[in-house]
Amino acid sequence: MKIICIGRNYSDHAKEMNAPLPSKPVFFMKPDTALLPKRNPFYYPDFTKDLHHELELVVRIARLGKNISEKYAHEYYNEVGLGIDFTARDLQQECKEKGLPWEIAKSFEHSAPLSERFVPIQELDLDTTSFELLKNGVAVQSGHVKDMIFSIDKLIAYVSQFMTLKIGDLLFTGTPAGVGPVQIGDHLEGFLNGEKLLDLKIK
């Protein structure tokens, strides 16, 4: 099982990171050990002092596919959920300055907690789907599928040029603006179209 993460897929987030808008999708990988077992707390890692939340819409791949055409990409997933791409921002900045890969800042243990439930596509109108992250009861991130630079179907078509997508693979589709730090004791709640799907406490 692969975890494929898309970077800079919302223009407002690219601006807040002082990064140029991509002309084609940018992606990186997380290992399966980045998943957090269900109902487990998230423990703040001791190797960072600047851990940031990045809430994302997550698509679960439902069919085996390679070189998938964009017009058929919708046939390769059947449910969506929410996930957090935790990022050790201080380590990421250090890697950027040295021109090094970012895995140390993105792919560490339990850095990709998922929602308890994934919602079948039949229950959603993806064109009107929105999601939101609350930190300690205050909204800090909100996103809408229509604001993606590259649609879900475009992402699937693009990534499948480079690797075979397998059943159960997870596609993190990018984070909207509002990323920020978390501290021990924080409570994160993720909502999809107003329904709470993710509930996470930082220990």
Can you walk through the features of this model?
The chain has 4 helices and 13 strands. It has 203 residues and is an alpha+beta fold. The strands form 3 sheets. It has a 6-stranded mixed beta sheet with strand order 2-1-10-4-5-7, with helices on one face. Strands 9-8-12-13 form a 4-stranded antiparallel beta sheet, with no helix packed on it. It is globular and about 45 Å long. The relative contact order is 0.28.
What's the total count of β strands? 13
Give the overall silhouette.
globular
The number of helical elements comes to 4
Spans of 5+ residues with little confidence (pLDDT < 50)?
A: none
The CA-CA distance between the termini, in Å, is 27 Å
Q: Could you tell me the radius of gyration in angstroms? A: 16 Å
Biggest beta-sheet profile:
6 strands, mixed
Order of helices and strands: EHEEEEEHHEEEHEEEE
- Strand composition percent: 25-35%
SSE-based structural type: alpha+beta
Detail the topology: elements first, then pairings:
Layout: E1 3-7, H1 11-16, E2 26-30, E3 51-53, E4 55-61, E5 77-84, E6 87-88, H2 89-98, H3 103-106, E7 119-120, E8 130-135, E9 138-144, H4 152-159, E10 170-172, E11 180-181, E12 187-192, E13 195-201
Parallel strand pairs: 1-10
Antiparallel strand pairs: 1-2, 3-6, 3-11, 4-5, 4-10, 5-7, 8-9, 8-12, 12-13
